[in-house]
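Workshop exercise sheet. Pairs work together: one partner reads the sequence aloud, the other fills in the structure field after running the prediction. Swap roles for the next sheet.
Pair: D.N. / O.F.
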Amino acid sequence: MIRLTRYFPLLFLPVWHSIEIDRRVRQFCRIVSESLEEVTWSLNSNWKDYFDNQTHDISTEWNWTAHWHYLNNINKSRCDNFDTNNTLINFIKSSNNLLPTVDNLRKRNDIYDDVPCPACRDHEETLNHLVICTGLEQAFLTAEKETIDKIRKYLKRFKCKKSVTINELYISIFEYRDPAFPELKQRNRQELLRGLISHTIVKKLRKLTSKRIASLLSLKIIKYFHEAFRKHVWKPRCKMMNELEESLHITHQDKCKTSRTHKEDAETQRDHYRHTLTAFREQKASKYNEGLRRCKDHLYRLVTTGLLPPWKSRKITVQHKNNNNNNNNKKNYDK
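Structure field:
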């Protein structure tokens, strides 16, 4: 009886927005639920700038395959020790602007209101400032040099048509090293911290090596740069921050206070809370509607063209069963 019901067809035809779903219904339902989750992620305040003003061709700008591949390499079953766990946490924080920079610390504690950048002591520390801070410039140069050295060592495993020089690697990976594009320093470093490799970099690497090697290098660039950033930039910065807190007499007990003190009276606080709550509800409703609209567009493209959401940058191919399997199914059904 189980064998009979296994191949028994549906008694109805599922329809989604006037489109008939005539095969792989379970797969379609799974993709719908995943798309809802991914659309919610794309509306994240730290990522939405990459999607709001973009069309369906966003997959032509970023190599999302390398981003997700690196994240999967240090996540789930592969996260089996403390070092990998620390790497995963630091990567997620750096890609979502959750590192404990001064601007993030101010959100939960008012003792950091007058604290400057611990490296340069001249500007307010944000993630945008961190990548161009003069006090950390030498550390970033060291991290970039270590990344290039590891990439050159990795390239020795392959037989390239021509030898790749250090200068070519620098200009290809760190685009601001090109004298024609010095203004790309902040953007280039921010993207690498987020784990993003632009297709412009991939195309340059393909010209130097090959298509296969360039795809492998994209993953290694994210890995090596993030490791070098933690070693040469972030850890020394944390040491500077500890020294600055000690000079400002900020104790461990002060840092444990996770709520900001309010100097306004109770009525002013209530008015501010009502206004904030109303704005939050409106923003949440707008975000929810935008998520449903974006999810509908992505699913419509999936059903009609087979294209997944742009941040996956790949295409679903429907795998047809061969004739032998079809014949076996017919025989089992006849039985």
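Discussion prompt: The chain has 14 helices and two strands. What would you look at next?
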